[in-house]
Amino acid sequence: MSFLKSPGVLVREIDLTTIVPSVPTSIGAIAGAFEKGPVGSIVTVGTEDDLVKIFGKPQNTGNQFETFFTAANFLQYGDALKVVRAESGVTNAIASGTSFIIRDDDHYEDSFKDGQASVGEWAARTAGTHGNSLGVSICANATAYEETAVTTTSAEEALGQTVISMTDASVFTIHDIVNFGETLGFEYQVTAVDASAATITIKLKDDPVGAGLQSTISSGTSVRRRWRFYDLFDGAPGTSEYATQNLRGTQDEIHIVVYDQLGEISGFAVETNGNRTNAILETFANLSKNPSGKSPQGDSIYYADKIFRSSSFVYWMDHNTAGTNWGTDFTGETSQIVMEDGGTDGAGTDAGDNIVLDGTDSGQANQDGKIELEAGGTSYAALDTPTTTNLKNGTDDYAVTAGELQTAYEKFEDTESIEVNLIMGGRGGGAGDTASSQDTHVTMLTALVETRRDCVAFVSPYRSATVGVANTTTATDNVVDAFDLCPSSSYVVFDSAYKQMYDKYNDVFRFVPMNGDTAGLCAFTDQVRDTFFSPAGFNRGNVRGAIKVSYNPKKSERDRLYRARVNPVVDFPGQGVVLFGDKTALSKPSAFDRINVRRLFLLLEKAISTAAKFSLFEFNDEFTRAQFRNLIEPFLREIQGRRGIFDFRVVCDDTNNTGEVIDRNEFIGDIYIKPARSINFITLNFVAVRTGVEFSEVVGQF
Length: 702
Fold this sequence. Notes:
Helix content: 10-25%
Number of helices: 16
Oligomer: single chain
CATH architecture of the largest domain: 3-Layer(aba) Sandwich
Structural class: alpha+beta
Radius of gyration: 37 Å
Strand order of the largest sheet: 2-3-1-21-22-23-27
Distance between the termini: 68 Å
CATH topology of the largest domain: Rossmann fold
Number of domains: 4
C-alpha cells in the first residue's frame, strides 16, 4: 500500500462491481456410430444440417440411425451439441493397398503427413465407404491441360459415329475432352481407348444419352485434346509469381479437382444427367509444387499445405522423391557460360574460343581472373498427361462395442476444457439390446457424470423393451426391471419409451430413443424460462416430431414407472406426446430426486465456483470474506427473484474460517439453499356444504 509522505491527496480504486458470471446450461453431448466425420474427436454442431455435413446421414445398418436421430432430435430444441464418432472397424478409402484408419487431422499430422508411400497419393478425409465415391484429378502443366493437333483422324467419320479411327490413339486417356475441328465447336468426351486398334470411343460432352458426332468429319482432321476439367479453370497451370521472383523457377503450378465419381456424395456421378458440375466437390487452382510457395498475399500455396488446410474430402498422402506425385522433387538447371565462335584473324586462321584466367597488368604482378556463375533456375517435374485417382477400400462398421462406446464418451471427462451440460446416451441399450447391456451402458454414463458432477445424463430403455411389444403391462415390466438394475444417481434421468418419427433421409418411419428429446426439453426450458424450472408437463414438456410412442403407459403403469425412477412419456389424445415426469435416477427420497433441483444446484455450483476462483491467492481476511459475500448474495437474490430458490444464507466469516483453516491456506464459504420444488401431485378437494353452514366453520377441517 502506498502512503503519503507529506500533505496531499491519495486516490485509490477498489472494484466491488464484480459479478457472478453467467455459465452455459444447454450444451449437449453424444457419442456413437456415424457415417463419416472425425473419429474420436469432439466436434460442435449447431444444426441438423451441420450434423449431416460433418457426420453424414442415418443408415439402416446396426441401428446407427438411433444415434443420429438422438443427436438430430436434441438439435430441434438446442443449438449446441458436441459429437464424438466412436471408433470401430471403419477405415479410410485410399488410392491403393490395404486401407486403415486416419482418425482426425491430429492423427494425420502425427502419422501420415510426411508420406505414406504404400497407399498412393490420396486418402479420404474421413473413414467409411462414402470415401470410395471420391475421385481426384491433377493437371500438372500446360500440355496436360490442352494439346492442339495432338493427332489426326485416319478415316472419314459419319454423323452420329461414336468410334473414331485415329493415326495414334495412345496419347488419349478416358475422360479426355476432344474436338474435331467442327465449325460449331462441338466437344466430346472419350469413354474408351483402344491403342492397338488406333480408335477412341466418344460421346457428346455432358449428354445423358451418349450422342455421337454432330457432323461428318474428314480423314486427316486435326484433333484437340483437353483435360476433362479444363473448363473449371481460367487457364492452364504455369509458373507462379513466387517461383518467378524467388526461385528463378518454371512450371511449379498444378490444378486439382476432387469429384464424386460414383454419385454417393453429390447424388449423381460426373457423367450423369448432363450436368457434370454438380458432382464437382472441390477445385484448387494454381497450387505450387514448391514447399515454400506463397501467394501474393503471403499465404502458402504449397499443394500439400493447401489440401490439408482447405479440403473437406481428401488428404494428400504420398510425398515420394520420384517426381511422379508432386513432392519436393525438381530438376535444377545447369549454370552455363556460352562461348561464341572466336572468328578468323587477319591471316585467315581461326582465332579459337578462349577465356584467359591469368591476366597481367603493367607494373603489377599477375592476378588470377575470375568468372562468377549464377545459380540455375528450378524446373519442376511434370507429367504431360493428367492423372486421375479413384479411391477405394474404405469400410463401414456401425456395430460399436461397449468398450469402443466408453472410449468415445471418455472424451467428455475433462471438466476444465470440455464444457457440457446434457449428455445423451443415444441407443438405449448402448452397444446391445438387452437389460444387461442397458445396465452396462447406464453404469458407464453414471460414472462419467458422477466424475464430472456438473452435467446430467439422459437414458432411454433398451429397444426391444417397448418397441414391438403390444402388451403395455409387459412393456412396463421390461422397463422397470431393466432400470432396477441401474445405479442410483441424481445426475442421471431415465425416460420410458421410443418415439416414432419420419426419416426423411431414407423415406421410412422409425422408432428412435427419446433421450435426445428429454435432454432437448431441458435446453428448451433454459430458453423459455430458467434452468431451475421443470422440463416436464404441458407447458414445457411437449415432444416435437413424434407420430406416436412405442409404449403409452396407463395411469397405473405410470405410477409403477415413477416409483422405479422412470419418467413416463405419454401420448395424450388431442394434446400430443408429453414428458410426464421430472425425476432423476436417485433412489432415496431427496430434493435431488427432481430434475429442476439437480439442475438448479449445477447452475449455482458452476457459477459461484467460477466467481470464487478470483479469491485464489488473496488473503483470508475479513476484507476478502466480505468481498466474497457481496459477490455471491446479489446473485442468489436474483435467482430467488426468478423463483429458483425459496431462501438462502451465505456464511463466510471467522466462524467457518478459523485459524486452523487459515493456516491450511484454505477458504470456506457455506451456502445454504432452500430450493423451489416442482408440483408433481395435485389434490383437489370438492366439499359440499349445507346451506346454513358458514364456510369459516368447515375450512381447514379436511
